[in-house]
Design brief:
This protein is mainly α. The protein has eight helices and two strands, in the order ββαααααααα.
């Protein structure tokens, strides 16, 4: 048994250390997603930082967490990437304060339906849909500073990706 910063690593494969690595990567990519989301909406950077950056970081995290690739899974990643990019760039034509945040969160959640269809992770998809839709709605409703609001949305999008694996 090897101890590293209080974490034990057994000879059976070091699952604890692997889990910590996944958590750290999730946090790092979620922070990068927060920055990309805000940068693309700030007016100081191209909008593509948000439209392409957030889905790319989310799909990269999902691919790493699953550790699998195949034709159908690659197609699901590609379609989910496109749907998420569309959902991020869509203006739902709704009163932003009343329904727009809810529609934005729901659209981003439903973008991962391709992945759920290919993998059968419908429970995780349903849980993420609820968590992300409610999370974005509440965060946007009660956060008054626009920089923090947008960064929070970007963070939630990627940070909720692990829920898909349930």
């Amino acid at each position: 048994m090897i101890s590293l910063m209080g974490l034990t690593r057994s000879p059976q494969g070091g699952r604890c250390l692997q889990s910590v690595n996944k958590i750290i990567l999730t946090l790092v990519l979620s922070c990068a997603s927060a920055i990309a989301y805000r940068a693309g909406g700030s007016g100081h950077f191209p909008r593509q930082a948000r439209i392409i950056g957030v889905p790319a970081l989310s799909m990269a995290l999902l691919a790493y967490l699953t550790g699998q690739i195949g034709l159908w899974l690659a197609l699901a990643y590609f379609l989910s990437f496109g749907a998420m990019a569309g959902a991020i760039s869509a203006y739902w034509g709704l009163d932003e304060k009343k329904w727009g945040y809810w529609a934005h969160g729901l659209g981003l959640s439903l973008a991962m339906a391709h992945y759920a269809f290919v993998t059968g992770h419908w429970v995780g998809f349903a849980i993420r849909t609820i968590v992300l839709t409610v999370g974005i709605t509440l965060w946007s409703q009660f956060t008054k500073w626009d920089v923090l609001e947008e960064m929070g949305r970007g963070f939630l999008i990627t940070a909720s990706i692990p829920l898909l694996l349930l």
